[in-house]
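Consider a protein example.
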Amino acid sequence: MEEINQLVQERIKKLNRLRDSGIEPYGAPFTAKDRAASLIDKFGGLSKEDLEANIGENTLAGRVISFRDFGKTAFAHIQDESGRMQVYFAKDIINTNKDIFKNLDIGDLIGVSGPLFRTKTNELTVQVKSITFLCKSLRPLPEKWHGLKDIETRCRQRYVDLIVNPHIKELFLKRSRLIKSIRNFFDERGFVEVETPMMHQIPGGATARPFKTHHNALGIDLYLRIAPEIYLKKLLVGGYEKVYEINKNFRNEGISSKHNPEFTMLEFYISYKDYKYLMEFTEEIIPYLCKEINGGLRVPFGGDAESENREVIDFTPPWPQITMVEAMKQNGVDPVVFDDIEKAKIFANDNNIDIDKKATLGKILDEIFKKKVEPGLIQPVFITDYPVELSPLAKRKKDSPDFVERFELFIGGREVANAFSELNDPADQGKRLLEQAAARDRGDEEANFMDEDFLRALEYGMPPAAGEGIGIDRLFMLLTNTSSIRDVILFPQLKPEQH
């Protein structure tokens, strides 16, 4: 840290020298007509002679990533949003701009203009005819950043990570393309994109612990939303038949490689359909996105890129469907646990599965499933027919009323999507919300609240419908073979920095 402080002090001295010489270290706007990548694409294939015949001026702005001073001449690489470009400074340019070159550091931002040529090593280069100083960097870029293994440091200083690791910038550009592709998919199919509130008086739409805040003017407590489901269903009541939303959800839970308290969700609803329809719909959208991002349906999963035994996820539909109960049986769960809470507790204890002392049978089965079944679900698979207790907003199965018409899509050992036929019977919904409220009173902080306005909306009549949520962060992790959710969120939540 002391070394860094000394380097910062040296750069501050250079900043002051720039000002003393009449050069503004935090310069005015600069028009960069060109981008590094576009110049390379356009002129990279031209010969040295063709470049000499094309003496047009090119203008770039970017950060100095490397600088080699040979006294009378100098070379540098500057980096803009698209990539890196070499630039060459001849003696006359250096002499004319001595104050800039004496105080130039790696990390500074400059603008340059000049024609293109090829060096003796055949590298496409801008021969600088004019230079403009744009911004002084007071902190040195880390020389050994490429070797850092500490993901927390990289996430905490993502701005530096993006500067020195071009593949990280490309990763997040790919994420932006994913979001754009999602919108294209839904817009082309007649869905309406909507925005619903981020602060709720009553949190609902999922079983999760909410973040709580307070609105001073209204004098009421509010909650950051755990899901947009309730508001999207109200839009179905109002007459919209196909709606979707891409936005943030917040859940006051632990942080892990699969969980961030603030995450991005795609949630969509369609009237007059059920969960079986959404399975086919999901087999359409996710392969579509996989092709858009990767160009194909086979994606490497885990392991070293050089490993011969590296697993591959095949997104080619159709995908198998299996009930939650049957999946547990196939993974060694004794069927006696499905109807007996005491036997379920014994099974969990014998298998070192942590459960809350007040946990209900449904919650215990869910924990058993997460430990015994979920890690092995690598290839895409629909797990269907969950207990009613775990799905308070889903429609019951007619032939098995203790279960609901629901599926979760698992890929790579992670839940990626959750969908069900929506419960539109206000009497049944009211009863289940009362049961959820009672569970909250018994200490279940993830149980749903009673929501009278939602019940009132259902009493006006909501058409039969199906809804689904897809975790964008987790899906992007799969499509890019990324192991931690922190790697696919620009600024993930971290513990306060220790000084």
